[in-house]
Write a structure and sequence with these properties.
Layout lengths: L1 H8 L3 H11 L1 E7 L6 H11 L1 E7 L3 H10 L7 E5 L3 H6 L23 H4 E2 L2 E2 L2 E13 L11 H4 L8 E4 L2 H11 L12 H14 E5 L1 H10 L4 E5 L1 H4 L9 E4 L6 E9 L6 H11 L2 H8 L7 E2 L10 H7 L4 H7 L1 E2 L5 H15 L2
Parallel strand pairs: 1-2, 1-3, 7-8, 7-9, 11-13
Antiparallel strand pairs: 3-11, 4-5, 6-9, 6-10, 6-11, 6-12
C-alpha cells in the first residue's frame, strides 16, 4: 500500500519537477573569469539539461594546486594558459582529447597552436581565445604617436602615469622585444638587459596591478597608460569611454592564448567534450569573445559570422592578419629559467 501511495504521489507536477532536477547532470569547470558570464554558460545548460558549476582562478599554479588537492572526478573541464598545457600534462591533470572530437578547421591558422596543445603527438587541449599583451592608453591624455614605439611608452615624459600589468611573462616579453630579443629565444644571458628595461619601467610606474585594478586605474584617470594591457583591458570599456584604446607598437607585442581541455579522471568526459565543442563553436566563441569580464579574439574565425559589426570593430577584426604577423608568443622558459625570471620580477616589484 505504501508503494502504491508513492506511485500516485509521483504523478503530481511537483514530483515530476523534483525528479527532473534529480536527473540533471552536473559539470564542474575550473575557469578564467570570462567563462563565468551567464550569457555564455546558460545556452549550454539549457540545451543539454545540465548544471555547469564554475570555479574561477588566477594563475596556473593556483589551478594545479587546487587540482592536486581535489579528489579524482571532482573536476571535468580546465581552462588554462596555452603555454602551460604541458605543465598540466606533466602533472597528470589533463586527459587526452578523443581523436577528431573537436575540429579546428575554421580556426585562425596561427592560433591552432599544436605545439602548445599537443604533447608527444597527443592532443590534450584546444585553443579557445587569444589576444595581445601590449599597450593600453587614454587617447585624450597621451600622445598617440608615443605609443607606437616601446622606446617612448615608458619614457620620463609619462612618469607617474603608468601602471604595469602584474604578470611577469608578458611584461618581460615586452621588455625583451624592446631590446630586440625574440620571446622564444630568451635565455639566462638576457636577464641583465631585460632587468634594465624592467627597472626603468618600474621607476616610471605609479602601480603594478592585476586585471581589475589596472582596468579601474585607467578608467578613473589614476593612470593614462597600462603596459601589458590590450583589447582584453579596454574593450569592455569602449562603449562608455571610447578614448580608452590600445595599440601594438612597431617593435611588436606579446600574444596570449588560452586553451581548454578535459580533466583527467572526469566522471563526465563525454559531457566535458560536448562543453568544449560548444565553447569553440561559432556561437560559443562569439559569446566568449565578448564576455562581460574581458573581451578577446575567438580562435574560431567563423565567430565573425555571429559577432556584430560593432563588436568586430572593437576587436579590430580586420587588423588581425597584421597583428598576428607582428606579435610573438609568450616566453616559455624551462624550469631553471622560469625561476630566474620570477626572481627578477620580484626584484622589480620591490623597487
Amino acid at each position: 500500500m505504501k508503494h502504491l501511495t508513492s506511485y500516485f504521489m509521483c504523478t503530481t507536477a511537483l514530483c515530476f519537477v523534483a525528479g527532473a532536477a534529480a536527473a540533471q547532470e552536473e559539470l564542474n569547470a575550473l575557469v578564467w573569469c570570462d567563462h563565468t558570464d551567464p550569457a555564455l554558460i546558460q545556452p549550454f545548460e539549457e540545451a543539454n539539461n545540465v548544471k555547469v558549476n564554475l570555479r574561477e582562478y588566477e594563475g596556473t599554479g593556483a589551478a594545479l594546486a587546487l587540482l592536486e588537492q581535489s579528489r579524482p572526478g571532482d573536476w571535468d573541464v580546465l581552462v588554462i594558459d596555452g603555454i602551460d598545457v604541458f605543465r598540466a600534462v606533466e602533472a597528470g591533470v589533463l586527459a587526452p582529447m578523443p581523436e577528431g572530437a573537436v575540429s579546428t578547421a575554421d580556426f585562425f591558422p596561427q592560433v591552432v597552436m599544436e605545439e602548445n596543445n599537443t604533447v608527444d603527438g597527443v592532443t590534450y587541449a584546444v585553443t579557445e581565445k587569444f589576444g595581445y599583451n601590449t599597450i593600453s592608453y587614454n587617447a585624450d591624455k597621451v600622445d598617440a604617436a608615443d605609443m607606437e614605439s616601446l622606446s617612448t611608452v615608458w619614457s620620463e615624459k609619462y612618469e607617474g602615469r603608468i601602471s604595469i600589468y602584474d604578470y611577469y611573462l608578458p611584461v618581460m616579453g615586452l621588455a625583451a622585444i624592446a631590446e630586440g630579443v625574440a620571446t622564444a629565444e630568451i635565455g639566462a644571458g638576457d636577464m641583465d638587459a631585460i632587468g634594465g628595461v624592467l627597472s626603468t619601467m618600474r621607476s616610471r610606474a605609479a602601480s603594478v596591478a592585476g586585471v581589475v585594478a589596472a582596468q579601474t586605474a585607467l578608467a578613473t584617470g589614476e593612470v593614462d597608460i597600462v603596459v601589458g594591457g590590450g583589447e582584453w583591458l579596454t574593450a569592455v570599456l569602449a562603449e562608455e569611454q571610447p578614448n580608452l584604446t590600445w595599440t601594438i607598437p612597431k617593435e611588436g607585442a606579446v600574444r596570449w592564448a588560452q586553451s581548454i581541455g578535459v580533466v583527467e579522471g572526469s566522471e563526465n568526459p563525454d559531457l566535458a567534450v560536448e562543453f568544449i565543442k560548444y565553447i569553440v563553436s561559432p556561437e560559443g566563441q562569439a559569446r566568449l569573445a565578448t564576455s562581460s569580464c574581458f573581451w578577446g579574439m575567438p580562435a574560431n574565425a567563423k565567430a565573425g559570422e555571429v559577432l556584430t559589426d560593432a563588436q568586430k570593430d572593437i576587436l579590430r577584426w580586420d587588423s588581425q592578419p597584421d597583428y598576428l604577423a607582428l606579435t610573438q608568443l609568450y616566453p616559455a622558459p624551462d624550469a631553471d629559467l622560469d625561476i630566474e625570471m620570477q626572481d627578477l620580477w620580484l626584484e622589480t616589484l620591490q623597487q
